[in-house]
Amino acid sequence: MTDLEPTAGAPQVSPPSSKRKGPRALNALISTNESPSVSQVYERELKGILMADAEVLKRVVAHLPPEEQLAYMRVMEKPFVVVRAAGSLGVDMAVVGVISFLVEEKTSVEDVYHFSKPRIIEQAEHLKSVCSMAGVTPVYAYRLKRQRARDPWRLFTIEMDAEKLDGYQRLFYSRLPKLEYTRSNNYVMRWESGWPLHKFIDWVASLHRSGSGSGG
Hints:
By secondary structure, this protein is α+β, with helices and mostly antiparallel strands. The chain has seven helices and nine strands, in the order H-H-H-H-E-E-E-E-H-E-E-H-E-E-E-H. It has one domain (22-209): Trna Endonuclease, Chain: A, domain 1. 36% of the residues lie in helices and 19% in strands. It has helices at 22-30, 38-50, 54-61, 66-73, 118-134, 167-175, 197-210, and strands spanning 81-84, 92-96, 99-108, 112-114, 137-144, 153-156, 180-181, 187-190, 195-196. It has a six-stranded mixed β-sheet. The model is unreliable at 1-8 and 13-35 (pLDDT under 50).
């Protein structure tokens, strides 16, 4: 929040200059005259983080521990390109260097998210099928509401045939926690089991710094 100071020792983020209007301009293109839903608010938050929108990052990290703040800020070294994927999946495509994935955002006040509705189950299977055919990693980004003291975002993937993935796609997939199953054989995400978003960002930044993610 703007009336709260960041944690002592945390990186200071300068307000975005006129040269860094890309993410905000892109968000404006997809906005409507209606007030955004809660889901849309968090979708834009995730997009703003990945695209290194300084205002979004400043707001998200304000209450986090210094080590998590620093990891988040590493996204500014090489921001993602995030665009809405075509079709009816309702997901975004995120790309940076050799890492690319389709991501769908889920939010809840509960720390367990159940894929119990037929439409949600069908969408998950469709996402898995599309990504398997394309050799792209499917990702679920789970945002826990009312979580302020810790990174609220956790990443997961759907278990699939890893042989369909090559190179860094397979490496990325292997690091992601997989969706679990309930007794009724439905997917479930347990927030505590996910990969924290700040750790993912730190991992990607380390790939690029080492030259592993340059593709050359």
